[in-house]
Amino acid sequence: MPASARLAAAVPTLRYTLAMPAPQSHYFEVKMDLGGFPAEYTDVKMPVWAPGSYLVREFAKNVEGMQARTAGGQALAVEKINKNTWRVRHPKQANFQVSYRVYAFELSVRTSFIDADHGYLNGSSVFMYPADNKMLGSTVAVQPAAGWSQVSTALRPATGKFTYKAASYDELADSPMEIGNQKVLEFIANGTPHQVAMYGTYTVDEPKLLADLKKVCEEAHRVVGQNPLDRYLFIVHNLERGGGGLEHLNSTTLEVSRASYSTPAGYNSFLNLAAHEYFHLWNVKRIRPVALGPFNYDQENYTHMLWVSEGMTSYYAAIINQRAGFSSREEYLNKLAALITEVENTPGNRVQSAAESSFDAWIKSYRQNENSRNSEINYYSKGELIGAVLDLNIAEATQGAKHLDDVFRLLYDTYYKKAGRGFTDQEFQNAVATVAGRRYDAFFQNSVYGTKTIDFASALAYAGLTLSNNPVANDGTLGANFSNRTGKLVVTNVIRDGAAWTDGLNVNDEILLVNGVAPGTETVNALLSAPVGTVVSVQVRRDGLPRDLKLTMRANPNRKFQIQPMASPTPAQQNVLAKWLGK
């Protein structure tokens, strides 16, 4: 054999076949045809998490029937060597096939699902990859279940019906598929074809929906000003109950309550979700912290910057919809005031920083418990507020010439286009300083990496706005929440430093008596609000035994924030406001 032929034969190839012969059983069937693997053995892996959803989900738990055979059909030895790795021994057999089944019955944006109606998959929960060839390109031949006629994916088509190609495993894992009889809508934005694959029953004015999505996409594009794609796919699951989305390289999956479109609030919520996931095209998928790509699929990928990746994406979702005309300036400011109220009334905001919340997402954010509100802050919410404050500060520092958009443009050009990598924590701070012409190191140290209260009032004043806050109630409060569980009043949450926290009321305590009376509407009201200093006698059942407590009502620490325009803003303040929210 000539040397050139031997070299060609040694080039590895990978082809997947995805079948679903019995969709009602909730199984995908996968075959991997590997060619040009001359080693004694090859390890194949199943990821433990889905990028964009920061929790180790152990997808290997759903794998069954792992087998391997030579090209001639001879069985090969397969040994599982750790929780998500299988070693296939194929001495002198460079070409072989691996096959397995995946149980998929969790319909969410981050997992995979198949039933008699449709199939949906995220690549990292269905497709394995050769451990030492993660960057190997592949083709995927999809065999839809009987009666299904559509495959929706952002992967590029290859030769053959329902056959697609991926440049690497990263692209395959980042390109979800909707398989079934979904309705596919289309529109053009920024010269790029967009598809909307609508699964499930829904009622909506489709021309209006497409026109509004087009506006969302075009406003999102204007932030960075550069189009990174030549096609895009929205996969929309219209369900009885739904909410949430997950970003991908050239697509997204959205879960929506099918009733959402029928009310203005529900419809605008859908557009906000679409804007959030679409802006991830830039922020996360291209402009990203160094930890978020290339991915290590075996373990957690830690970063302190999810408050940027997710929180600032939430910020831009609201700004994009405001710029697109789906909410007024007043409506946006009311939303911002409500978000300040939410964050500032969360006890965990004084315990956990935005950076720490980001880093600990893997062990905390997706594993909430009864004490999470006391010990954590949501990096989405806190990051959204940090984004607003930085935007205002940059606009003020540059006299309305620049704002946060310019930071993302700088990051895109510097790290995505030129360096081809993510940015570090310090490089993000440097980018803000470069655009603003001044440094904000103290702000980052105190209010991003620390828990010092953000000076919202000063930032809003730059735009001619005032921030007020008032007590939410004048009465005292117990600092606990309750629920009725089969006729029993049970404590579900105890708030840090409140009366219940200090005086020893526990989560899961069953309330038996309040001031000697069985709990009813009046006695519960007495628990929830009474003059500060009032002592309430409570008998609870804990671990099956009665216990008597005395709880002293404390002042309610919660505040309600409001944003109002100043009566006579200066020209400089008007300039900042116009740069921030438009004229």
Automatic annotation (TrEMBL):
<dbReference type="InterPro" id="IPR036034">
    <property type="entry name" value="PDZ_sf"/>
</dbReference>
<dbReference type="InterPro" id="IPR001478">
    <property type="entry name" value="PDZ"/>
</dbReference>
<dbReference type="Pfam" id="PF05299">
    <property type="entry name" value="Peptidase_M61"/>
</dbReference>
<dbReference type="InterPro" id="IPR027268">
    <property type="entry name" value="Peptidase_M4/M1_CTD_sf"/>
</dbReference>
<dbReference type="InterPro" id="IPR007963">
    <property type="entry name" value="Peptidase_M61_catalytic"/>
</dbReference>
<dbReference type="InterPro" id="IPR040756">
    <property type="entry name" value="Peptidase_M61_N"/>
</dbReference>
<dbReference type="InterPro" id="IPR024191">
    <property type="entry name" value="Peptidase_M61"/>
</dbReference>
<protein>
    <submittedName>
        <fullName>Peptidase M61</fullName>
    </submittedName>
</protein>
<dbReference type="Pfam" id="PF17899">
    <property type="entry name" value="Peptidase_M61_N"/>
</dbReference>
<feature type="domain" description="PDZ">
    <location>
        <begin position="464"/>
        <end position="542"/>
    </location>
</feature>
<dbReference type="Pfam" id="PF13180">
    <property type="entry name" value="PDZ_2"/>
</dbReference>
